[in-house]
Design a protein that fits this description.
TIM Barrel, 13 helices, alpha/beta, 46% helix, seven-stranded parallel beta sheet, 333 residues
């Protein structure tokens, strides 16, 4: 085995200084700005089609990028048959996402995932299992995944999840507000959810596969940021279409525009459908090109994926040994 250099600048890895960002406080709804937002679908698709072939990351640099990707994963279990023991195993995996032997060989002994994401009922189990690790617990909320429960119950669910110990809340917006062009209703809903989260950071799930157009995605992204979202997220992972590169490009350019106008950085989370290490590298390249290295940190970028971790482990083992291992050798939890 050989060691991978960990101070290379091409990777945007953990050597970047940790910076405490002021939270996005939001702003008044600016309908003139919202109406000006457009999306050139053909140009967006052309730009995204070139990405996989334009960036070829090999050997030590690829390993460093993959280690960075591990640190950005929200390790997730959102199944109806979740148990305390399953969540405990997942949290153990979050603490030690890659074997200690591999991490030592790669020069990254203290690597963890970005967070653990669970349903409300599993928050206490996750908080207990992660105690002392510094890994935050994220909870899906507001009638996830459809977001169609009564609004007062959605707000109460947020408050109860924060009280139970969740440090991040992944809320779902009402898609009908976007499809009907009712931006004031979306703004008001998002602002109230942000207030209910209190100190916990809020990720606004747009369910982009159900919004009808890239222009709607761009406008919904902007409105949620105006209402104070700390992150904007593509999908619940339960839709038929989840994270895609065109949607990602639209959302991160909305983030860039918002930052240039307000000075506040908002995070981005693609979720659903990202299961291969090579796909993670494309997303990281896109973030680096469009937003810069600062967004390649866990407080501003996350992958909403769990199966991704298994493939990254296999690629790292191949980097070290020259052979691919069987998937069962890298259990997810």
């Amino acid at each position: 085995m050989h060691k991978t250099p960990t101070n290379t600048t091409q990777t945007g890895t953990a050597q970047l200084p940790q910076v405490t960002e002021p939270r996005n406080p939001g702003m008044a709804l600016d309908m003139d700005w919202v109406r000006r937002v457009q999306a050139n679908t053909s140009a967006i698709e052309r730009r995204c089609a070139t990405l996989p072939g334009r960036r070829s990351i090999k050997k030590d640099h690829q390993a460093a990028w993959l280690l960075k990707a591990v640190s950005l994963i929200d390790l997730t279990t959102l199944s109806g048959d979740d148990t305390v023991r399953r969540v405990g195993r997942l949290c153990a995996k979050a603490r030690q996402p890659v074997s200690a032997q591999m991490l030592e060989a790669l020069g990254m002994p203290d690597l963890t995932t970005g967070a653990v994401c669970v349903y409300h009922e599993m928050i206490p189990a996750a908080v207990t299992a992660l105690k002392g690790s510094g890994i935050p617990v994220a909870a899906v909320s507001t009638g996830f995944p459809a977001g169609l429960t009564p609004f007062r119950l959605r707000i109460q669910e947020v408050r109860e999840s924060v009280a139970a110990g969740a440090e991040e809340i992944d809320i779902v917006i009402s898609r009908r507000h976007v499809l009907e062009g009712n931006w004031q209703a979306l703004f008001d809903e998002m602002a109230e959810m942000r207030e209910a989260c209190g100190h916990a950071h809020v990720k606004a799930i747009l369910a982009t596969g159900e919004l009808g157009s890239l222009r709607n995605v761009a406008r919904a992204s902007l409105v949620c940021m105006m209402a104070g979202a700390d992150f904007i997220k593509t999908s619940t992972g339960k839709e038929s279409v989840n994270a895609t590169l065109p949607v990602s490009l639209v959302m991160i350019r909305a983030i860039r525009d918002y930052f240039e106008a307000t000075g506040y950085r908002v995070g981005y989370k693609p979720a659903g459908g990202i299961s291969k290490a090579k796909d993670a590298l494309v997303y990281l390249s896109l973030i680096k090109e469009e937003l810069g290295d600062r967004w390649l940190m866990p407080d501003l970028f996350r992958f909403g994926a769990s199966s991704l971790l298994g493939d990254i482990e296999r690629q790292l083992e191949h980097h070290l040994t020259g052979a691919y291992s069987a998937g069962y050798r890298h259990p997810i939890g």
